[in-house]
From TrEMBL:
<dbReference type="Pfam" id="PF18407">
    <property type="entry name" value="GNAT_like"/>
</dbReference>
<dbReference type="InterPro" id="IPR041065">
    <property type="entry name" value="GNAT-like"/>
</dbReference>
<keyword id="KW-0378">Hydrolase</keyword>
<dbReference type="Pfam" id="PF13242">
    <property type="entry name" value="Hydrolase_like"/>
</dbReference>
<dbReference type="Pfam" id="PF13344">
    <property type="entry name" value="Hydrolase_6"/>
</dbReference>
<dbReference type="InterPro" id="IPR023214">
    <property type="entry name" value="HAD_sf"/>
</dbReference>
<protein>
    <submittedName>
        <fullName>HAD superfamily hydrolase (TIGR01450 family)</fullName>
    </submittedName>
</protein>
<dbReference type="GO" id="GO:0016791">
    <property type="term" value="F:phosphatase activity"/>
</dbReference>
<dbReference type="GO" id="GO:0005737">
    <property type="term" value="C:cytoplasm"/>
</dbReference>
<dbReference type="InterPro" id="IPR036412">
    <property type="entry name" value="HAD-like_sf"/>
</dbReference>
<dbReference type="InterPro" id="IPR006357">
    <property type="entry name" value="HAD-SF_hydro_IIA"/>
</dbReference>
<feature type="domain" description="GCN5-related N-acetyltransferase-like">
    <location>
        <begin position="283"/>
        <end position="336"/>
    </location>
</feature>
């Protein structure tokens, strides 16, 4: 199925926008250039904007402060974190006031406390659960305590399973990679609270009361997969970690409904992609055609329309007709 079209701006069709942060609103210490203005424009159109992050290190108040420093208007109530989703998940499974060993930072500890749980740091305190989230200060000692508690039967929950995250210097390991330490040592796979799993999505819907939300993200395996699994529309932005080649090779469950350069795409209509009986896909001035195991591209115009046409052809073709490698020449023609 090709990308969807929209004759009106997406903000006219969706009552809420669930915006990922890393790669969508900012990268490291820098705002995505289009983000501040685009977010205000969406709000002015009546779309409720919430900021959704798998990063469990900071509290909602700290994240809102950081957003305001980047000229993005935000208050703590508009921030939903995987730490909050993890805390609600644990609180639904253990008695109130239970000790929970937190392998993470302030945001995760605060979320546990606000859900009526008691954050601890030692396995000797017999925690009923271990919850791990991203922390730039995480050390071996705390991971060892978490491993001991999990090996003794504590519930093991992670805020998210992202393997990497975009930073100023490039793509770096994230919580999903670090969480493998405890999982490998204990043989116990964690329950995941953040994207793409249900708890964080439900937290967003509960917070906003949204009936027709739009998920905006830069990751196919968290943002887009999560939206698809929950029956929610999604828009992938190319301002973060996903490359055009990865997008073309995405399996059905990782394919977005809409594609944009950046978050400003929520304020725009989206062009139609027409796929013919022979598998040729047309968008704007571009035509993409599967031919002898490769994707060919002809035409001119907006590069993004060229990529949309390639998506239409790749996703409509039989599996053997197109892969990310077969699209190399076509992507090079577009400058990728």
């Amino acid at each position: 199925m090709p990308l969807l079209s929209a004759t009106r701006p997406l903000n006219a069709s969706h009552d809420a926008a669930f915006l990922d942060l890393d790669g969508v609103v900012y990268i490291g210490s820098r705002a995505i250039p289009a983000a501040p203005e685009a977010i205000e424009k969406a709000r002015s159109a009546g779309t409720r904007v919430v900021f959704v992050t798998n990063n469990a290190a900071r509290t909602p108040a700290a994240i809102a402060e950081r957003l305001r420093a980047l000229d993005v208007s935000a208050d703590p109530e508009a921030v939903v974190t995987s730490a909050e989703a993890a805390a609600r998940l644990v609180a639904s499974r253990v008695p109130a006031g239970s000790p929970v060993l937190v392998v993470g930072d302030t945001g995760l500890r605060r979320a546990m406390h606000e859900c009526g749980l008691r954050p601890v740091s030692l396995a000797s305190e017999q925690p009923t659960a271990v919850v791990q989230g991203y922390s730039p200060h995480l050390g071996y000692d705390l991971m060892a305590e978490g491993g001991l508690a999990v090996s003794r039967g504590a519930l093991f929950v992670v805020s998210n399973n992202d393997a990497t995250t975009p930073m100023d210097r490039g793509i770096v390991p994230a919580n999903g990679s670090v969480a493998r330490v405890i999982a490998s040592a204990t043989g116990q796979e964690p329950i995941v609270a953040g994207k793409p799993m249900r708890p964080l999505h439900d937290e967003c819907v509960q917070r906003t009361g949204a009936q027709a939300p739009l998920v905006v993200g830069d990751r196919l395996d968290t943002d887009i997969e999560g939206a698809n699994s929950h029956g929610t529309a999604s828009m992938l932005v190319l301002s973060g970690v996903t490359t055009p080649a990865a997008l073309l090779a995405a399996p059905p469950g990782h394919r977005p409904n809409y594609l944009a350069w950046d978050v400003g795409g929520i304020n725009l209509p989206h062009p139609q992609i027409r796929v013919g009986s022979a598998g040729a896909a047309h968008c704007g001035g571009w035509t993409a055609t599967p031919h002898e195991g490769q994707l060919r591209l002809t035409g001119d115009g907006d590069r993004l329309d060229g990529l949309r046409a390639l998506c239409g052809a790749a996703w409509s073709a039989p599996p053997e007709a197109g892969t990310d490698l077969a699209a190399h020449d076509a992507l090079a023609y577009l400058g990728w």
